[in-house]
Structures are given as structure tokens and as C-alpha cells.
Amino acid sequence: MPQPRRPTKPNSATSHRRPKPTNKDNKDTLSSRTSTNAIKKRKRDLRRLLEHAEKLPANIRISHERELASCDTELETAKETARRSQMIKKYHMVRFFERRKAERYLKKARQQLINCSDASQLPALQQDVHLCDVDLQYTLYHPLNEVYSSLYKKEGKDKVKEAEAEGMHEVDRSAKMWKVVEAAMVSNQLGELREGRLMKKKSEREQEVKQQSMSTTQKNKKKEARTASKNEKKAKQPAHKPNGPVKDADGDEVLDDEDETGAGFFEA
Is 6 helix (H, G, I), strand (E, B) or coil? Predict the structure, then answer.
């Protein structure tokens, strides 16, 4: 009669292994890298095919050219996506802790404004509430695809506790993005700012203005060159002789030297 099999003991080397942590950000960056590499490879293949465009039919050549142009746009979007995920991963914790600080400071400033009984201090407290509100929106709506500049300086815990007890905290609002966030709060464009669309539109407008200024300067230079060439031609042209005979002060005709000797008309 066969004996029942004994249950095997779990292998200690494999049973106590922890599952490997999975990082979504790493997966996103890896997929973006592979996608950019695939797009670059496809661009190289298309360029090699278009090197011998005279051997290709017209419809196939046109389709390859269109695909090459679309590959350029796809590559730019893939690079922007990779940069965005990289910036999110890098500044996630900094933004989180600064958001908590900004919420705490804004709550305290609003409480001071509510409890204020002196009318002369109201404008200063209202300005403090506004600044703290902009600080909070800065931590929330700073563009995700750009480098995040910290608002609060790194100090020891004791100094931070002392400053909070005194109601004072140092904030570095010198970053250009702080002013952009403040303007976006007024125009109600914080969502576009966070996704990077607002800064993209701004850069496109600046590029258009720059191109227009360059075109106007080029037109002015061409116009100046044309006027200068006209003036040079006028200066090089000889002076016109008068049509009639030249007379002196007494009214007698003035003859040339050749006319006086007569050699100009008759030769000896």
C-alpha cells in the first residue's frame, strides 16, 4: 500500500523573499525611452528610403515624407512626456511638504485676519493672506514639466519651530514662476499653467513677436540698401552740359580751345 506523501517544508530561501517594489514612474520613463528609440529608428529608416526617392513611386514617396514629418512631432511629444514624468518624480516630496507648510501658514494668516480688531492692521494682514494664498497655489499649480524652485529655505527643526512660534517665516518669492502663478490666479488659468500649456502659448507668442521684429528689421535693411545704391548711382553719373552755346558776361559766345585754334574742325 503506498504511503501518503509528506508535506514538504517551504524553502526558507524563497518563502521569505519580499516582492520587488514596482514603481510606476520608472515604468513610465522606461516606456517613454523605448518609444523615443522606436521613433528615432523609424526616422532613420524613412530617411534611408528617401535617399533613393527617384526609384520609389510618387504615392509611396509622399506617404514616407508625411510619416517622417509626423515622426518629428511624435518625438517631441514623447520627449516632453519623459521630461514631465522625470520632473514629477524628482520634486514630488518637495512639493508635498511645501504644500503642507503653505496650508498651515495660510490658515494662520486667515485666523489672524479674523481676530484682528485694529483697523490700521487690516491692509497688512490682507496682504499677508494674499501672499500665503499665492504660495499655496504655487506649490499646487507650478508647471509639472519644469524645475521646481523651493519657496522655503532649509533650516533646522528648532529654528523652524521658533519662527512659527513668533509668527515669522522666510519665503523666497524671487522666482519668476511665482509672479506667473499670481497672474494666472487673476486670469483663472491655473489648470493650463500646471499642465504646461500656458507657458507653451506664451513662448509661441514671444517667438512670433521675435520673428515679426526680425522681418521688419530685414525689410528696413533692404530699403536702406536700395536707397544707398540709388544715391551711389546718382553720384557716379556725369554732370549734363547745357544744350545752347555758352556765353560770357558780355553776351559773346565762348568757344572751346579746339574751336579757337581751328584744329577741331579742320586738320592741317
Answer: coil
